[in-house]
Write a structure and sequence with these properties.
About 40% of the residues lie in helices and about 20% in strands. It is built from twelve helices and 14 strands. Strands 5, 6, 7, 8, 9 and 12 form a six-stranded antiparallel sheet that branches. Strands 4-14-13-10-11 form a five-stranded antiparallel sheet. Helix 6 runs antiparallel to helix 7 (about 180-200) and helix 11 runs antiparallel to helix 12.
């Protein structure tokens, strides 16, 4: 048996990390002294501990590591391979964004004849549906030439909250945003949306999620996101989620205290930790590089909560155009019982007609 200090030195994990992994049932000690509480580890646990250390160096979240270490070697290798494929896809997006920013900041480095971004446009469709159970629809969905948005209201005045939030952003659809300050513009618009929600709901305890993409006209989409509505992109046959849920359950997944499978059925999975209407709620704001052939989906949890991601992938990939995709997605939510309001926006990035 090794003390926690000796085991930490052997596997290159700190004692603090080992104590955390014990709490998360990721790497339990072989023995805990009943009197002192000192942890002791078996030499045979070093291989698993080193695997954990390597996976952490790879950047894998604790929830993913917990899944990998419980799998047989072949399945574990497949999980690591899939994780790294996702990392490479996300890195490719950031690489293209970096190249775009370099060209914007230093035009002398731009390659003549290579700027085709101005020839792209959005083709889109949006619909919001009450579902089959709820008495009223508290969702709002919007799609326009530049702005795509989905909001999911909650509380007695949730419908007013979601409508006010989206309406406060609609001015962005009519004017070309400044290339250098689009995120600042979005942040200012969100402050306006928060004020509009407070005016619309009054003293009622109500609020809304908001997920929106703003087309900059230069091959970029600016994202503003708060709550648990989602945005996905279908690119090169792969479906990638580009938002992160602001829920209590998602924070537990991030900390490794829940698996994704456990989170999907958790009774508090819809409990938000950020929303418009809550005090000092901070949104996610970032630029996303767009390519011809991309298909984007924005949706409320009434869709992804009942339709599995692989099914979303198939429906998005098979639909000939955005309107057909929206109809098929809402039909799939209905087929799953339609327990909640369901809203979605689908938009294609396509080459503009000459």
């Amino acid at each position: 048996m090794l003390t926690i200090g000796a085991f930490a030195r052997a596997c290159r994990l700190s004692p603090k990390a080992l104590r955390l992994y014990d709490e998360l049932e990721l790497l339990r000690p072989a023995r805990v002294d009943p009197d002192t509480g000192y942890r002791h580890y078996a030499v045979g646990q070093l291989e698993q501990a080193r695997l954990v250390a390597w996976l952490r160096r790879l950047g894998m979240p604790l929830a993913g590591i917990r899944q990998v270490v419980r799998l047989p070697p072949g399945a574990a290798a497949a999980e690591v391979r899939a994780y790294w494929a996702r990392v490479e896809a996300e890195t490719a997006v950031r690489r293209d964004l970096a190249a775009f920013l370099v060209g914007q900041l230093d035009p002398a480095t731009a390659v003549p004849g290579k700027d085709t971004t101005a020839m792209l446009e959005l083709r889109y469709s949006a619909h919001s549906d009450r579902g089959l159970v709820r008495p009223a629809n508290q969702d709002t969905a919007y799609a326009g030439r530049r702005l795509l948005a989905v909001a999911d209201g909650f509380g007695p005045a949730g419908g007013s909250a979601s409508s006010a939030a989206v309406e406060a952003l609609r001015f962005l659809d009519t004017a070309e945003p400044p290339a250098g300050g689009v995120l600042n513009l979005l942040e200012d618009a969100l402050h306006g949306a928060a004020e509009a929600v407070r005016d619309a709901t009054g003293p009622e305890e109500a609020g809304t999620t908001l997920t929106a993409l703003l087309w900059t006209g230069g091959g970029q989409l600016a994202l503003v996101h708060i709550g648990d509505s989602r945005a996905y992109v279908l690119r090169d046959g792969k479906l990638l989620r580009i938002t992160h849920d602001h829920t209590l359950v998602q924070s537990m997944v991030d900390e490794g205290r829940l698996t994704e499978a456990e989170a999907a059925s958790h009774p508090q999975r819809s409990l938000l930790v950020r929303a418009i209407g809550a005090d000092a709620a901070v949104p996610d704001l970032r630029l996303h590089d767009a390519r011809a052939g991309d298909r984007y989906l924005l949706c409320s949890d009434g869709l992804y909560g009942v339709v599995a991601e692989d099914r979303l992938h198939g429906l998005l990939a098979d639909a000939a155009e955005p309107g057909a995709a929206v109809r098929e997605l809402i039909a799939a939510a209905h087929a799953a019982g339609g327990p909640d309001n369901v809203s979605c926006v689908v938009a294609d990035v396509a080459e503009a007609a000459a």
